[in-house]
Amino acid sequence: MLIYTARRLILFLPIAIGIVAVTFAIMQLLPGDPAAVLLGEDASEEGVRDIRQALGLDQPWWIRLGTYYFDLLHGDMGVSYFQNQPVVDAIGQRLVPTLEVAIVALLISIVIGIVFGVVAAVRRGTPIDAFCMLFAQLGVSMPVFWFGILLMYLFAIQLDMLPSIGRGPPLVPALGRALMGNPGDLGLALMHIAMPALTLGLTNAAVISRLVRSSMLETLGQDYIRTARAKGLAPTRIVLVHSLRNAMLTVVSVMGLRFGALLGGAVLTESIFGWPGLGQLAVAAISQRDIPLIQGVVLTFALAFALVNVLVDLLYAVIDPRIRYE
Amino acid sequence: MKMVKLLCVLAAGALLATSNASAQNIRLGADVDAGTLDPRVMRDTTAYRVVNLLYDGLVQLDASLQPSPNLAESWSNPEPTMWIFNLRDGVKFHDGSSLDAGDVVFTFETILDPELKARFRSLFTPIETIEAVDDLTVRITLKEPYAPLLSYLDMGIVPSDYVEGGGDLSSNPVGTGQMQLASWERGSRIVLEPYGDHWSGQTPANGFEFVVVGDNTARAQAFEAGDLEIIQSPLSPQDIGRLVGDDRFQNAIMGGLGITYLNINVSDPLLADPQLRRALSMLVDQETIVGQIYEGVDQVATSILLPSSWAYDASITQPTFDPEGASSAFAAAGWTDTDGNGILDRDGQDLELTLSTHSEDPNRIQALEYIQFLMQENGVNASISISDWPAFSAGVRVGEHQIALLGWLNIVDPDRLMYAQFHSSGTLNWGGYANAEVDQLLDTGRASIDVDDRIAAYQAAAGMIADELPYFVIAYQGYQVFYSGDISLVPDARGMMRSAARN
Asked: Alpha-carbon distance A149 to A164, whole Å?
C-alpha cells in the first residue's frame, strides 16, 4: 500500500505541471493587465510600461512560464503583485482556516447525511422518509450565500447565540488545550466555526443523505441481510454493521469529490462570515489578475483535492478488506 | 442647501469627535483586507483608512480639503517652483526613532522610483528634486509650477532607517500616527492600539479593529448583531433602507470625493459629433438613477466640479433629462427615423451604440441598463457590454469603448480630475479629447498659485466640458456611515478617522 500511495503522489507531478500550464494559458487569454490594475484608474501609459518591466511581464510567455516552473521546482511560488509578500506566505496564512471550515463541514455533512440517509432507508415510504428527502431537496437547491445570510439573521441577530463574523482561536491548538483540561478556547472556536461550517455542511449533507438512502435500500434487499434477519440478529446491528458498512463504499468515493465542492463553496462562505481563508484570497487575486497568487491558490486547491482523493482510495481498503493495492 | 447640510454633518461629526473620543474601542467593517500597510504603495480603501491612523503626512486635509499643518508646522513658496517645509521638532516614529528631513526625502524619492510600483507616483512626477536643507527643513523643487502638490502631501512619511535596515512596512508598519499596529490577522482583522508618544498628545480611541467581511449584506447584519460599531460605504442600497429605520443606529450622509460618469469616446467616428453627444446626454435620467438606484446617497451632478470643491460653480450645467429635446437635437444632427423601423438613421445607417461598464458594481450595471432602456425607447439601438474590471479597463484605456460608465475617486483638487483627463497631452485622456482653449486653462489652473486665478481657469474649462461633453457626469458620489448609538467618533467624508479626531 505504501508503494501505491507513493506512486499516486508522484503522479501528482505531471498533474501539477498541467495545472500550471492551463492556469497560465487562461490568464494569458483573459483581457486585463495586472500592471494597469496595480496602478489603478489613474495609471499612465508610462507607469504601466515601467511596472510591466518591473514585474517581468514584458518578457515572452515561454520565458515567464519556464521561469515559473524553474522557481516552483525550487519551492518558490513567486511574490504576489498586490499583497507584497511571497505567495507561499500568503497561502500559508490562509490555508489552515479554509481547511478548518472544509473539514468541519465535511464532518457535519457525513454525520447528518448518514443519519438522515439511514433513517430514510429504514423507514422507507413513511412520513419520516419524506421529511428526510425534503431536507435533501432543500439542501441541494439552496444557494450557499443565501443560506449563510439566513443563518446569520437567525443565530446572530434574532437569537444572539453565535458571533456573526470572524474566526475564533485556531481550532487544532484549541482542541489540544481542551484535551489538557482547558476547554474555553475550544468553545469559542466552535462558536465561530459553527455557522460557516453549517452553511457548507448542510448543502453537502443533503447530497450524502440521498446517496446513503439509495445504497442502503440496495444492501437492505440483499440475501445476506435476509440471512442475518433469519439468524435473529438485532435490527440495529443488521442496519449499522451489515448494511451500512457496505453502503459506505459509495459514500466514501463521493466524499472525495465533494471535498472539491467544499473548497469551492468556501469562496462564498468566507466572504459572508469574514473568514480569513483561501477563498477570499482567490477571488481578490482573480479580480486583480495577480498571476503568481492565482497560480499558487489553484495549485494548492489541486494538491489538497488530490491528497483527499488518495486518502479516500486508502479508506476503501479499510472499509472493504478484500480491496488491496499493489 | 445641500452644501449647508453637508457642512452641518461634517461640523457635527467634528463636534462629536472631540467630546468623548478617547474612551472607546471601535470595530469597523471593511469590505476588503488591506493589501499592504505601506502608505507609499497602498491601493485599496481599507489600506487608506488604516494607514491614515498609522502615519502622518506633511499636511493634513481638513473637512473642506484645505491643507493644514501636520508634520510640517509651516511652509513657504518663495518661487513658483520651490516649496520649503519646516518640520515639527521632537516627532517620534513608533519604533522610537526621531523623524527628520531625511525621512521625508526618502519617502518621496522612493515613491518616484518606478521600482517601488507606487500607485500615486504620477501625482509627484512634477517634482524635480527633494532635499534636506537641515534636519528639520525640506526643500522641494518642481520642474514647473504645480499648485495641486500641497493637496497630495498628506502622504504618510515613512522611517528611512527602518526601511533601509530591511524593515517591512507592508506587514510591520512604523509611522508617526496616533495609532500603531497591535496585530494583523490577514484576511480577517487589523487591530490598532494608541501610540502614547504621539506629538499631539491625543489618541482618537482606545483601539480600532478593522474587521473584513466581503459581503455587503453580511457586513450590515454583523453591524445589526452588535459585532461592529461602524460600517461605511460601500453599502447595498437595500440594507441602507433597513438600517435607516432602526433607531438603535445613527447615520450620516456626506458628499464624497468621487464622481460616476459616462466617458463618451470623442475619437469614435460616430461620437465625434458634439451635437450627437448632447442629444444622447439628454437621455440620461439622473434623478431616477440617483434616487432609485443609489437610494439618494449620491447627488445629481451638474458639472465636472465637485460641490465640496473651492472651484464649484452651480451655474455651470450639463444638459438635463429631456427626451423631447433629445429628439430635436438628434434631428439637428441629421438623425431621424426615415425607414420607420423605430431606430434613428442617417445616410442609410441606423444609430447603433455600445454602452459598457464593469461587473463588480451591480448599481453601475443597473444604471447602465436603465440608460440603455431610455436610449432604445428614443430610437437609439443601444447594446450593453459588461466585463470584469481588468478586462473593461484595458478596453477603455486604449479607447476601444463608445460610451463607458465608470468613476473617479479621491478628487482632492480639480487638477486631479481634469488635467490628465481633458488636456490633449493628458495621460488619462482615453477618448483623445482635444481643445486648445481647455489645454491653456488647465495649464493655468495647474501652474497658478493664486486661488482666484485657479478658480477662474477651472470654471471656464468646466463650462466648455459641460458644453462639448467628452464626459457626462451622472452623479457626485455620496459617502454614508452608520454607527451604533454610543459611538462618538465618526469618520470624515473620505472614511478617514484621523481628521475627524483632530478637527
From this structure: 10
Which of A30, A33, A41 best tests the B interface by mutation, with the highest count of B CBs <10 A?
A: A41
Query: What is the ipTM for the molecules in this complex?
Result: 0.76
pLDDT confidence of residue B498: 64
Closest residue in A to B393 (Cα) is: A32
Angle between helices A87-122 and A244-273 (to 10 degrees): 130
pLDDT for B337 beyond 80? yes
Q: Which residues of A touch B221 (CB under 8 A)?
A: 149, 152-153, 156-157, 164
Q: Is the dihedral of CA A240, A246, A248, A250 positive or negative?
A: negative
CB-CB neighbors (< 8 A) of B412 in chain A = none
Q: Which three cell numbers stand for residue A122?
A: 429504514
CB contact at 8 A, A199 and A147: yes
- Report the C-alpha gap between B312 and B367 in whole angstroms: 25
**Cα radius of gyration (chain A):** 24
- Look at residue B7 and tell me whether its pLDDT is greater than 60: no
Residues B288 and B411 in one domain: yes
Q: Per the CB < 8 Å rule, is A32 touching B389?
A: yes
Distance (Å) of CA B178 to CA B102, B174, B210: 21, 11, 16
Q: What angle do CA B432, B435, B437 make, to 5 degrees?
A: 150
Instruction: Choose the closest CB to B213 out of A31, A160, A165.
Output: A165
- Chain B residue closest to A166 (CA)? B188
Of A94, A164, A280, the CB nearest to B227: A164
pLDDT at B15 over 50: no
Q: Name the residue of chain A whose CA is nearest to B169's CA.
A: A84
| Residue B493: per-residue pLDDT | 63
Mean per-residue pLDDT, A32-58: 78
Kindly state whether residue B443 falls inside one of the protein's structural domains. yes
* Angle, CA A207 vertex, CA A154 and CA A264 arms, to 5°: 75
Residues of B in contact with A157 (CB under 8 A): 221, 224-225
CA A192 to chain centre: 18
Taking the Cβ of residue B409 and every Cβ of chain A, the question of whether any pair is shorter than 8 Å is answered with yes
The answer to whether A247 and A219 have CB atoms below 8 angstroms apart is: yes
Disruptive mutation site among A164, A195, A275, A286 for chain B (greatest number of B CBs within 10 Å): A164
A284 touches B: beta carbon within 8 Å: yes
Number of domains observed in the structure of chain B = 3
Element spanning A230, H or E: helix A223-230
CATH code for residues A87-325:
1.10.3720.10
**Structural domain harbouring B350:** 256-478
Contact call for residues B157 and B56 (beta carbons, < 8 A): yes
Domain regions of chain A by residue span? 87-325
Q: Tell me, what's the pLDDT at B489? A: 67
B387 with A31: Cβ contact below 8 A: yes
Asked if the C-beta of A38 comes within 8 angstroms of chain B's C-beta atoms, the answer is yes
Question: pTM of the full predicted structure?
Answer: 0.80
- CATH number of the domain encompassing residue B220: 3.40.190.10
Report the CATH number that the domain containing residue B351 is assigned in CATH. 3.10.105.10
pLDDT at B107 over 60: yes
